[in-house]
Amino acid sequence: MIHQDIAKLFKLSNELDTIFNIENNPCKNCSERDNSSIVNIGCCAECVVEEGYFESNNKYQIKLLKLIYRFNHIYGFFDIKYMNCKLPRYIRSRKCSWYMCDKLKMYIDAKKRNTIINEMTNIKKKIGILW
Ligand code: SF4
Ligand code: SF4
Questions:
Q1: Residue to probe by mutation, ligand 2, list 47, 51, 54, 95, most atoms within 8 Å of CB
Q2: What is the mean pLDDT of each run of 10 residues along the chain (131 residues)?
Q3: Given this model, what pLDDT does residue 70 score?
């Protein structure tokens, strides 16, 4: 049943949020991100060319996401006002959900993260949404 799959996707996404929203998360004050003068968006710098790093090739859904989340021609899905990704975690691509730089790796439970992302990807593939 599709609504059960979506409910599961939200639940997993919340779990993923919990893993990443740790108190000492270096992303919150990342030295590679800086909007004080010339905006530097660090590890999301390629978002505009990679269009959110989606691996599935559903052009219609990508177009829709770009419209809904105001894809920017310089910063992609990155929000330079709040210095983070505009996409909620359950919508983000597998690659973006996966990515951790070396600083972040010290804080995140990678095994748990991998299990959750794999489950989320399977659901997305099953119900036909971007992953
Ligand atoms: S993953 Fe690393 S480089 Fe990217 S925002 Fe977080 S701390 Fe900064
Ligand atoms: S996390 Fe968001 S802003 Fe960063 S590359 Fe992925 S889609 Fe773009």
A1: 47
A2: 92 93 85 83 95 95 97 96 93 95 89 96 96 97
A3: 97
Reading the block at residue 25, the tokens are 């998360």
Question: Which of these, 12, 96, 99, lies nearest to 54 by C-alpha position?
Answer: 96
Name beta bridge partners: 72.
76
* pTM as predicted: 0.92
Cβ-based neighbour number of residue 88 at 10 Å: 11
The position carrying tokens 């030295």 is: 31
CB of 25 closer than 8 Å to CB of 17: no
Question: Which protein residues touch ligand 1 with a CB less than 6 Å away?
Answer: 26-27, 30, 32-33, 42-43, 100-101, 103-104
Q: What is the 3-state secondary structure (H, E, C) of the chain?
A: CHHHHHHHHHHHHHHHHHHHCCCCCHHHHCCCEECCCCCEEHHHCCHHHHHHHCCCCCHHHHHHHHHHCCCECCCECEECCCCEECCCCCCCCHHHHHCCCHHHHCCCCHHHHHHHHHHHHHHHHHHCCCC
